[in-house]
Amino acid sequence: MNVTCLLPVQQIINFTKIIPEIQTIQVLQTEVSGRFNLDFGFYASSNYSNKLTSDATTSVPDLVFARIALSNLPSSVRNLIVQATRCWATNTNDPTSARYYNLISNSCPADSFTTVTRNHNSSYANFQFQSFTWTNVSLAVQKIYVHCQVSVCDLNLNATCDDLNCGNDRKRRDVSSMHPPHYVSAGPLFISPHYSPDACAKGGYCSDMCRMIDDKPVCSCGRGRVLAEDMRTCINFSSGGLTANTTFYLVATFLVLLVVAYYWKSK
């Protein structure tokens, strides 16, 4: 007696009680160390073709063009990205000076007088800022040093090196925590103040007396008072006495006025 069994080839099985378990896996990117040469300097214009010398002078409020670039790179290397995360100006070569002015903060302009034209997307970073003078600093030592915190990112290790948005609602990761920062400095850049032809007539430039000499306001003081180190404010002898700098500028001002008086008398 022959018995034949027929079984279906395909079966449909329903499971209604399966709950998928979702897990988040954090993948740490590989970190490597390298040695890079960074060139940081000031330039005459936005085409960055004419680099200024270390003793260059600019006039307020002219723009200062700055560039931080990887140097001595083979032309075939295109994977290294310069990221300037913070830049600030000081009136001395000390980056930790208590007197400073922020130019770039969190990789974006710190104020409306600074423009970042390239950052986080090339082997160099470009930015420009409006020149200015420091308050309570004599004209003879008006100069600017700029210091920047810089990181170098490798596109081969991190595909989001160019993740940067400086919009009003900008949100970005802290690249300095992902790539060890380094510090570079440029300067000094000497500053020549801009004077209005009626600086003395407007009042307020000098605390006491003001005269226009060679299109520049020159301050002087009444009897018993001397110019402070900012060469604009008069102080009493009893308010601290004469410092070496104040004595120098007092003598220099006297000589300038003496020469001017002689010139006018000879005419």
From TrEMBL:
Record keywords, A-Z: Disulfide bond, Membrane, Signal, Transmembrane, Transmembrane helix
Transmembrane segments: 246-264
Pfam family, one: Zona_pellucida
InterPro entries attached to this UniProt entry: ZP-C (IPR055355), ZP-C_dom (IPR042235), ZP_dom (IPR001507)
ZP domain segment(s): 1-173
Highest taxon of the lineage: Eukaryota
PANTHER family (alphabetical): ENDOGLIN/TGF-BETA RECEPTOR TYPE III (PTHR14002), ZONA PELLUCIDA SPERM-BINDING PROTEIN 2 (PTHR14002:SF54)
Name assigned to this protein: ZP domain-containing protein
Organism: Ciona savignyi
